[in-house]
């Protein structure tokens, strides 16, 4: 069997390359103490993440969330809980900054890249888990939950727009302060509300500058989600291929990305591109959301990934499928290389925690659930393309 990824990464980190010979140093501070091992926490009740579009006018929630980001942004540069370091976590693990090791200690030939393979969903789930705990601890609310951007929802007006709480209120709502949920984030402002996101919008908008009608958008979105979630039955189709330690992901445009990514990741790319600045010469790296290096600098990123994570839960409940090659079963990988793969995150106490993929496979075990959206989900689940 192929060895699995290791974790002793932090002393071997390098700046990552961008367009125009620019680099970005996303290397993380050294942990102050020995890394600790992940443990499931006994929780008295499940934490429920709610959809951003339903929270837009929840004054208490939005103000509290804003305050958490304010405090996160004010932490000193070397505090791993600080906003800078939170986006560096994503940048470092996802843009080939770290050299990685097999669990037996031997270095892997190429640096770590957590997209384009079966590591995509587990890693981002735990990124959210710790990001949320840090935000909660900064406002002394252990029950704080991140909102999710419910962009697949074609039932509720506003769900598939950039969520109101992440953009300036218009007209302003004097009771709500959401400054830290958008300040400094670089986005394509042509895609601000009331524009509804068309998943897979690029062919239309890029080639012809055409803005699809609401009906076209709705149909395109239901088709896209059906195709990328319902129609991806095996774990490989949905999560992505086995991590290939001998692939050089840092090649400028990774040639096999679409063959290796699972449906979950292909679907998720569209919202990144919708929010980021594509085709804007002032932002050659498609900042912020249009490039993995800078995505974590936009607070909306974490909400976007909330929905990606939620859809994994939904995918697990969908029925098996049959194709010409036989029956495919909707169950997770049981490959030991997958289960034993290990990542590290900083927690709310600034401890570095070592987490194995096998501990990430159930949100219920992590004490987290998503508000039931089954009415909206059923539109794409039952969509016949
Ligand atoms: Cu690590 Cu949505 O990307």
TrEMBL record:
GO molecular function: catechol oxidase activity; metal ion binding
Domain Tyrosinase copper-binding residue range list: 115-132, 298-309
Cofactor: Cu(2+)
Record key words, sorted: Copper, Disulfide bond, Metal-binding, Oxidoreductase, Thioether bond
Domain of life the protein comes from: Eukaryota
Family: Belongs to the tyrosinase family.
Protein name (database record): Tyrosinase copper-binding domain-containing protein
Parent-protein start and end of this portion: 47 to 431 of 625
Upper taxonomic lineage: Eukaryota, Viridiplantae, Streptophyta, Embryophyta, Marchantiophyta
Species, as recorded: Marchantia polymorpha subsp. ruderalis
